[in-house]
Amino acid sequence: MKPRWLNPGLLFLLLLVPVPATPQERASLEEVEALMARGRILEAREALEAWWDDQGPNVERMDRQRSLWLRARLTVDPSMAEMDLRRLVLEFPGGPYSDDALLRLGQSAELRGDLRGAHSHYTALIRGYPSSPLRDVAEAWLRERGPEVEALGPEPAAGAEDPTAATGDGVISVQAGAFRSLDGALSLADRLRSAGFDPRVVRVPGDPLIRVRLGRFQLREGAEGLKSELESAGFEAAVVLDAGSEERIR
């Protein structure tokens, strides 16, 4: 007698039963870099976001550095890029990406007219990474722009009411994240509220990203204080200067 499980009718019925799809494998950091090299930036961003979601907080030290470096290069939000570059410098001194992070922080500071900040980053690169191939770039900048920075005189004391500290009526804010989807922004806002903070979800004209922000300050000192509180609570944060133009969503 033929075993029941070989019955052709049963086999036909089994063929009609849908087989669960195998979960799609997460992209590796190598694949993210390969997409970047081929100019497929949007796909690279999506792959990196999926990698972060999959890994969570349990990321090995080298992979964390590499992923922060890639995210800083892929983001379209300069404030978020600076936040990741600063984390590389502060959390991974001597790491394989930290000298380049200092160079980019210096370039970013120069672009927004912060010559003191640029001077500080380039000096830190030279002192902290004497064998870096980027040292020559930093030294050339200091030779050319150093006298100009010295002519500015000492930096104003923290909290002093000068044009760099008081930028208007509440246009300084702290940003905890920027997302392409509203769901991602709302999820972060909920986590912030659960931690005792008062976030808002906003857009900035001319930019499709949805941002999660907290506080509005006239002086940068207040924003820096809130930024420190957020970081102590385990959140990422960056000070931004365009709160006056934001459009609130939630």
The CATH architecture of the largest domain can be named as Alpha Horseshoe
Roughly how many Å apart are the termini? 70 Å
Number of strand segments: 5
pLDDT < 50 stretches: 1-6, 8-24, 157-168
Main sheet strand line-up: 4-1-3-2-5
**Integer-rounded radius of gyration:** 24 Å
User: What's the structural domain tally?
Assistant: 2
CATH class of the largest domain: Mainly Alpha
CATH superfamily of the largest domain: Tetratricopeptide repeat domain
Report the helical percentage.
40-55%
Strand content: 5-15%
Would you tell me which CATH topology of the largest domain applies?
Answer: Serine Threonine Protein Phosphatase 5, Tetratricopeptide repeat
Kindly name the structural category: alpha+beta
Whole-number mean pLDDT: 80
- What's the tally of helices? 10
Gross morphology is globular
Order of H and E elements: HHHHHHHHEHEEHEE
Largest sheet, strands/sense/barrel: 5 strands, antiparallel
What does this structure look like?
By secondary structure, this protein is α+β, with helices and mostly antiparallel strands. It folds into two domains: 47-151, Alpha Horseshoe (Serine Threonine Protein Phosphatase 5, Tetratricopeptide repeat), CATH 1.25.40.10; 172-248, Alpha-Beta Plaits, CATH 3.30.70. The protein contains ten helices and five strands. It has a five-stranded antiparallel sheet, sandwiched between helices.
Supply database-style keywords.
five-stranded antiparallel beta sheet; Serine Threonine Protein Phosphatase 5, Tetratricopeptide repeat; Alpha-Beta Plaits; 53% helix; alpha+beta; globular; 250 residues; 2 domains
